[in-house]
Amino acid sequence: MNSEIRELEPKAVWNKFADLNAVPRPSKKEERVIAFMKDFGKSLGLETLEDAVGNVIIKKPATKGMEDRQTVVMQSHLDMVHQKNNDTNFDFDNQGIDMYVDGDWVRANGTTLGADNGLGVATIMAILESKEIAHPAIEALFTIDEETGMTGAMGLKPGVLSGAILLNLDTEEDDEIGVGCAGGIDVTATRDYEEEDTPESKIGYTITVKGLQGGHSGMQIHEGLGNANKIMNRIMFDGFEHFGLRISEINGGGLRNAIPRESTAIVAIDASKEENFVTHIAEISKAIKKEYKTMEPHLDILIAKVQTPKKIMDLGVQEGLTRAIYAAVNGVYRMSADIPDLVETSNNIAKVSVKDGKIHIGCLTRSSVESSKWDLAHALRATFELTGCDVDFSGDYPGWTPNMDSPILKVMETLYEKLNHEKPHVAACHAGLECGILGKNYPEMDMISFGPNIKGAHSPDERAQISSVQKFWTFVLEILKQIPKK
């Protein structure tokens, strides 16, 4: 229950998080949370403005004795990824997130939690509201639409901010100080196709792939998690080879930044081969589950007999589609040659939709190297164009190049070691952070990213560690005290 959340320490953060999570805030539908943030800033008597694209900026003067310090921009994004389990009845557009405490973790009931990036937002809100915390002048920047295009960061104009240092509170490991991130581009393949009448000799089945963990398509892309679209396509391909399986509909995955957890398909098979089909699917399912038993212990592949669909996909198009999805890169494409253990370039086949004569395939390609990002994007384009698809590139955003000589990095490294008696992990990440985009219009701004432990972001298994939020809060307060002088 959310009342239980409000009793957690630090109460200033968790109460603001509970307030925020009561406000629906899907990407591209942030009107209510924008109004919420503006009302919050104005209620404190602070200068509050909304820019042309919907970002909210709240400015707070320095506390006494801190007026000679550099102005700090504290930044987090307002929107959250909306994912839920299939058996969860939840309306993200109208309901607040239902949270509960599970040991040292806060979770949501069957949905994403919104800790990404709600805990960052709540932390900034707590500082803006406080009358006791020492800090330099603060420009709180709350961006919109980070999760589905970063249009808020892209739309922020030069001159709106005056801060010399930017603290981005959107990293998900509390021992990490982020100094770089990947850029990304959406790759979308579409085509129309002719539907055929289903032959009378065929019968209908549904195939369901479910029980996968899902997760962040950047930070977790190297973990070997199952992709429901890839697994479903494997079954489609095999079913055609052995049983004349024909596709009527496919609905797999959803958001580009989430590794797809579930896929369903309606297919038709030769009635004369039904018994062998059922046996064979059981065998291939067993083999696939064995492959994934370590990373995906709850993977399930189910079939059920249904009314025979009236229409099926044109055979030639079906053959091309299943071959293209089989061939398309999913997962890690290249590891960084310069930074140990960093994924340089990857792709997530996030969405596959086949219905009513239309194919839609949505991918998110990421890379910390621009040339490698475009190399993979064009490889995907070539793969899908070979099967007659039109391929569109959109939502292109740059990466963030590490600056190992950053002054605020030196301050934070020293403070972290002093507080925690160990060195922090200074690293670039494979997620898309807004720092690279913000840096285009504010190239002189010294930027860093950090945050508390958040696991399973972009999935209903998202959870935030309570003890880590306490650690993070202490770190933030000490950083604000040590901001360099102007």
Indicate the overall shape: elongated
Radius of gyration: 24 Å
| The CATH C-level class name of the largest domain | Alpha Beta
- Main beta sheet: 9 strands, antiparallel
Contiguous uncertain segments of 5+ residues: none
Mean pLDDT: 95
Keywords: Hydrolase
InterPro entries: Peptidase_M20, Peptidase_M20_dimer, Peptidase_M20C
Organism: Gaetbulibacter aestuarii
Pfam families: M20_dimer, Peptidase_M20
Features:
six-stranded mixed beta sheet, 2 domains, Aminopeptidase, 12 helices, alpha+beta, 486 residues, 29% strand, Alpha-Beta Plaits
What is this structure, in a nutshell?
By secondary structure, this protein is an alpha+beta fold. It has helices at 2-5, 11-21, 31-43, 115-129, 151-155, 228-243, 274-291, 315-327, 370-385, 407-420, 435-441, 466-481, and strands at 47-50, 56-60, 72-77, 99-102, 105-108, 138-143, 165-168, 176-180, 183-192, 195-197, 202-210, 215-216, 246-253, 258-259, 263-270, 300-306, 311-313, 331-335, 343-355, 358-367, 390-397, 425-428, 446-449, 454-455, 463-465. The mean pLDDT is 95.
Q: Please, could you describe this protein's structure?
A:
- With 486 residues, the chain is an alpha+beta fold.
- The chain folds into two domains: 2-181 and 399-481, Zn peptidases (Aminopeptidase); 185-397, 2-Layer Sandwich (Alpha-Beta Plaits), CATH 3.30.70.
- It has helices at 2-5, 11-21, 31-43, 115-129, 151-155, 228-243, 274-291, 315-327, 370-385, 407-420, 435-441, 466-481; strands at 47-50, 56-60, 72-77, 99-102, 105-108, 138-143, 165-168, 176-180, 183-192, 195-197, 202-210, 215-216, 246-253, 258-259, 263-270, 300-306, 311-313, 331-335, 343-355, 358-367, 390-397, 425-428, 446-449, 454-455, 463-465.
- The strands form six sheets. Strands 9, 11, 13, 15, 16, 18, 19, 20 and 21 form a nine-stranded antiparallel β-sheet that branches.
- Helix 6 packs across helix 8.
- The longest helix is centred in the middle third of the chain and has 18 residues, at 274-291.
- It starts with a helix and ends in a 5-residue tail after the last helix.
